[in-house]
Each structure stands twice: as C-alpha cells, then as structure tokens.
Specification:
622 residues; alpha/beta
Length: 622
C-alpha cells in the first residue's frame, strides 16, 4: 500500500526545491504548478472514464467506435485532445524547436512552455467555465525546469492509486501554497474536516447552493461528493453559485471544480464583494448556504451595506466614520437572508461572535427568536493551516421539525480532535461521523445512528480479518459490546508486541531492517484498529442504542428561554458545562519507574552503538 502522506511530502519537497532554484516567488510559482497538477488529474480522470466508455463501446466492421467529447461530458469529465494529454507532454523530445510542433492557431512552437500553454488553451476549449482561467505563462520557465516539473507530477505511484488521490495531492499543494501566500484578510483554503462537518450536517440533496466567500471552492467539492455518494449526479441535482472578491482565488475555485468534474457560476472582483453585492440575485432563493468568510473585517461602508439590503435583523454597530467596525454580523445576516423558506445554512465564524455585545447581541436575539438556529459547534485551536485561532460552526435550518423548532443543539468539540502535527489538528473520518451522530439523534433520526453502529462493527470485523486474528473476527456479532472489542484489540496488540520483540532478537542481522519494517507496519495497523474501536466506544457509551441525552462537557439541547437566561449567548461552553476529569487508570509511580527503566535501556544501547562506531573507525585506520 502506498503511503499517501509520504508521497504528498515528497512531491512538495521536489517541486519546492525547483522553485527555490528558479528564483520565482511563491505567488509566481503557485498557479503554474497547480495548473500542472490540474492537468495531471484531468488526464487521470480522462483515462479512467475512457476505459469505462470503451467497456461497452459498439463496433462497426470490427473497429470500436472512437470516443468523442460528448461521451466525457455525459460522465462529468473533461475530454482532452491528444496535445493536452499529460502523457503526450511528458514524452516530447528535448529539443522542441526541431520537432515542428504547431499550436491550435497554426503557429510554430519553439519551447516547452509554449507547448504547455497550448495544452491549457486546448483544455479551455473543452469547458466554458474554464475559459480564461487556466495559467498560460509557462514560458517564464526554461525547458529543463518545466520538463522536470512535468516529470515530478508524472510519478508512477499516482497511476497506482488513481484519480481521487491525485485530487488529494492537488488539495495538499493548495494547502501548502496557502501557507506561503495566504492574504492577511482571511484564509482562502478551508480545512477539509471543517468543510466536511458543514456538508454532513447540511446534507445537500438538490437545489441551489451558494458560497458567497467561496475561496478555492472546498464547499462545492465536498457537497458534490456528498450528493454523488447518495447515488445522484451532483451537476444534475445541484446548481453551484459562488462569489469571491479575489480573482486569483476564483481561478483556483474554477480549476478545483473542473478537476472534480463540477460546473458552477463563480463571480469575482469588485462585483463579487458580498458586503456590497448580491452578485447572483439570490436573496431568499437558496436551498443551501455554506461559507468560511473572512473574520472580523473592519472599515466596511455602512451606507453601501444598507443599500445592498439582506439585513433582516438590522445593521450591526456603525462608528463615527459611518463604517461597520466588525463585519461578522453582516455575514451572519446575509447567510440567513439568502435562504428560502426551507433553506439550511452552515458556516465558519470567529468564536467571539457567539456572545459579542451591543448591536450584535440585538441581532443575535432576533435571530434566536426565529427558531431557525439549528446547531452551534465550538472548534478548538489549530484547525486552520495558517492561523491557530479557535472558531465556531453555525447552522441555520428554516425547515426544522416542530419537535425542535424552538431548540438549539450546542456541541463543545474543543477537546475532541486528532493531532496531525505540532501546528495542525483535524477531525478524523470517524470523529466526523460521531459528531454528526449527535445531530442525527437531536433531529430524531435514530436510524442513521443505528446504521453508524453497524458500520463500526462491519469495519472492525474487516480490520480483524485484515490482521488475520480469527479470535476477534469470531467475537464480533451484531450485539457485541464495543468495549469488549476494544479490549480484545488491545490484548492482541500486547501479544503482537511481545512476538515482535522475540522475532527482532532472533532475526539474522541482514534481515533485521526488512523484518523491522514488516513489524512496524503491522503494529501501526493494529494501532489504527484500536483507534477506530475507541471512537466506537466513545459514541456508544454516551448514547447507547440511540437515545439523545445531554452529555456534560460535550452537548446540550437548550430552548429559547434558557438562551434568553444566558443573555442570548450562543457559546456552547455556556450550556454544556465542564466534563469531569476522567481517571486514565495509570499508576503515576509505576509509570515513572517504567519510563526510568526505558531511559536506562536506551542509554545503554546508545553506549553500545558508540563503542561499535569507535571500533569501526579504528579498523578503517581513521
């Protein structure tokens, strides 16, 4: 199995080394590099879809009918003419000027940069939404550098893992460039786990989806995946609209959508400044609104906002310069105003907005009294790639059932996450499902919760089978308690660690490295199974077979009178309380003694290694 994280890091390191050698800035380098990854992904999807089309292709006179552009359009994939196919570009001769190549306009091409520019122009001809969007400044690279970049992204590992992984590589690079060139007025790349959380709770099915601060289009991509996974075609079921003030980010959005086979209408520039313009005339028309707007924007012209309307609860505070000093409640009002009578909204917002005072509090009171605030989720630090600030996820639902019409679900998830590295946290797939399950139970959708418990059991059975542990496979039944499954995996881990230690003590020296790698992979797989089992236990211990209950420190359903008593605060921590500190069952003195023994053992091993190195140096006569 390919280590995707390792592959991402290696590709980035190679490409960034070339950037350093080229003396180009990240700004100059970003779009052309993403353009090449876009082309590689488009080619991967092209080959995959081409194979599907050819499976049942009719033939005439023994010849299979050739594929056409319309065949690809029907499957939400780009058709690529030969000269725009990645394989063609990689295998061009080194001396372009002697190859006699001509571009789409019939002009001779003398450099690889011109050939790649022509490929981008040919792709634009296949997609109306990409016209004028793809980078066509590859002549700023010399042929050697550009050829090396093309080869980097033609890594054979990408062919083994398929198009979806290339899409992930694309998003990984987008994230890395976001770190390097993020603007100071907000992060344009929203972390995937926050986007997935919003999409999972909104549950888009069909209709109009608007992201009025769309950045690189993450909300559209995840919504498209959600709809496609439900068995529908996202392009047929959904109409995607976006506004993005920064034209550069809008280009990324259109490329990102195209690479995922989605179409949409994205407006950019001054007319797409959502503070002042409803660029698509969608006020009151949207089935879904999703966004990660820039937080705490100041100096917003109050008069222009009032003229733009979409302020059902009135204006936020205005200073003596006739400016809104903080734009958070402009965004919140706009998101609500865009919704139709049954619409749902989900968005990221600065944590401070949940209990800010003054005019903000007045707007929040009116908002709560509509009964349309659905759920509030507190998110901890380090979820963003470029900032460490905490945030909140807000959810509106104008079509709430009568049972929860005047109630709000509060979830404090600040201490529930997976650490990716020192500066980044995220929700794992199972953590996303668990948080989503709390919302299902609040909405009375018990069948979805039961389905998740069954999914846990099936997946843990699958992991046990992969690990070839028949004992655990036999014990997992539809009624097995998750805590017992977790205990079984932990016992299995202890047994396997002892076996690994024995094997490594008796393996011959030349096989040691290979055997260690095998055991490392196996123990990592067991650890992953334990992690999944822990998440199943986390969920089941709180909600059993599917009955919602307030959980101290995690979740609470509050009615409007309770919210009024809290001064109209929408901060989850004000409602859920503080969870009791759990005893982790570890004896402190015993653990310290264990650590001390480990340290002494490592020191002894280090001394032995130093002696061996010294002896080897002497033998070499150095």
């Amino acid at each position: 199995m390919i280590n995707i994280r390792k592959l991402e890091a290696e590709l980035w390191e190679s490409a960034d080394l070339l950037r350093a050698g080229s003396k180009l800035t990240s700004n100059q380098y970003c779009m052309p590099v993403l353009g090449l990854i876009f082309l590689r992904y488009a080619y991967s999807r092209f080959k995959m879809v081409e194979a599907e089309i050819l499976k049942n292709r009719p033939s005439r006179g023994g010849r299979v009918m050739p594929v056409e552009a319309s065949d690809f359009t029907a499957k939400s994939a780009l058709y690529l003419p030969k000269e725009a196919q990645y394989d063609y570009l990689v295998n061009l001769p080194s001396d372009i000027s002697s190859a006699g190549l001509v571009n789409k306009d019939g002009d001779i091409m003398n450099s690889l940069g011109e050939v790649v520019n022509n490929a981008m122009a040919l792709v634009e001809d296949q997609s109306e939404q990409l016209v004028g969007v793809l980078p066509k400044d590859y002549t700023m690279f010399n042929d050697d550098l550009l050829g090396e970049l093309l080869r980097i992204f033609n890594n054979s590992a990408l062919d083994e893992v398929g198009g979806d992984i290339i899409g992930r590589i694309y998003e990984y690079f987008l994230n890395k460039f976001a770190k390097n060139i993020a603007s100071d007025d907000g992060v344009f790349f929203t972390p995937k786990s926050l986007v997935k959380m919003i999409v999972n709770i909104i549950e888009p099915k069909s209709g109009i989806l608007l992201d009025p601060a769309c950045g690189s289009g993450g909300m559209f991509i995840q919504s498209g995946d959600f709809v496609n996974q439900s068995g529908m075609n996202a392009n047929s079921a959904m109409t995607f609209y976006g506004q993005e003030k920064v034209e550069y980010n809008a280009q990324l959005c259109l490329m990102n959508m195209a690479v995922h086979g989605l179409t949409g209408v994205i407006k950019s520039g001054d007319e797409a400044n959502t503070f002042y313009h409803d660029a698509h005339n969608l006020d009151g028309c949207c089935d879904y609104v999703m966004a990660n707007p820039p937080f705490n924007v100041d100096k917003v012209k109050a008069e222009s906002c009032e003229n733009a309307k979409r302020l059902p609860f009135g204006m936020p505070g205005v200073n003596k310069n006739k400016e809104v000093g903080n734009g958070n409640y402009l965004w919140i009002s706009y998101f609500y105003s865009y919704l139709n009578e049954n619409g749902r909204a989900g968005f990221v917002m600065a944590s401070s907005a949940t209990d800010s005072q003054g005019k903000d509090k007045d707007i929040r009171e009116k908002l709560v009294k509509t009964g349309h605030v659905d759920a509030m989720i507190s998110v901890g630090n380090n979820f963003f790639y470029t900032k460490s600030l905490p945030c909140s996820l807000w959810f509106f639902d104008k079509g709430k059932s009568e049972a929860i019409k005047d109630k709000v679900l509060f979830i404090d998830a600040r201490n529930y996450y997976t650490v990716v590295d020192r500066t980044l946290n995220e929700w794992s797939e199972w953590q996303l499902k668990n948080l989503n399950a709390i919302v299902w139970l609040y909405r009375g959708e018990t069948e979805k919760y039961i389905a998740l418990l069954n999914e846990y059991r099936r997946y843990l059975m699958h992991l046990a089978a992969e690990l070839k542990t028949d004992e655990i496979c036999r014990m997992i039944t539809p009624t097995t308690v998750f805590a017992d499954i977790l205990s079984a995996f932990k016992d299995f881990e202890t047994e396997q660690k002892q076996q690994a230690k024995f094997d490594m003590e008796h393996v011959v020296r030349q096989d040691k490295k290979r055997q260690q790698a095998i055991w490392d992979e196996r123990l990592a797989d067991i650890s992953s199974a334990i992690t999944v089992a822990k998440e199943a236990v986390w969920l089941y211990e709180k909600f059993g077979d599917g009955v919602y209950a307030d959980v101290l420190g995690l979740c609470k359903v509050a009615d409007i009178s309770e919210i009024e008593a809290k001064g109209w605060s929408l901060t989850p921590g004000a409602y859920v309380g503080v969870a009791p500190v759990e005893d982790d069952g570890v004896d402190f003195e015993e653990r310290m003694a264990e650590i001390h023994r480990e340290l002494l053992s490592l020191q002894a091993e280090s001394n032995d290694l130093m002696d061996i190195i010294s002896q080897n140096i002497k033998e070499l006569g150095l």
